[in-house]
Amino acid sequence: MPALTGKTYNPRLKSFADRPSAKGKPFKVVMCAVMRKLIHLVWGVLRSGRPFEPDAALA
Question: Which InterPro entries does the UniProt entry name for this protein (predicted)?
């Protein structure tokens, strides 16, 4: 559910998800990629101890 919400309302995650969709990947594969991206973002915030910075997050 967070992956679907992020893809819908976050323009950066939407552009991230649009790349595999444009290549013809199935919906579930795209959602798994978005989930993995969210997990990496959360892990980076927890590991660094710094607040989330959207400008640097999807670089």
Answer: Transpos_IS110
Distance between CA 14 and CA 43 in Å, rounded? 20
Question: Taking Cα atoms as reference points, which of 21, 4, 7 lies closest to residue 58?
Answer: 7
16: enclosing H helix or E strand: helix 11-22
Domain ranges of the chain: 2-45
Return the closest-CA partner of residue 20 out of 11, 10, 30: 30
Q: What is the pLDDT of residues 1-45, one digit of tens each?
A: 899 999 999 898 999 999 999 999 999 999 999 999 999 999 999
Instruction: Identify which of 45, 32, 43, 44 has the alpha carbon closest to the alpha carbon of residue 6.
Output: 32
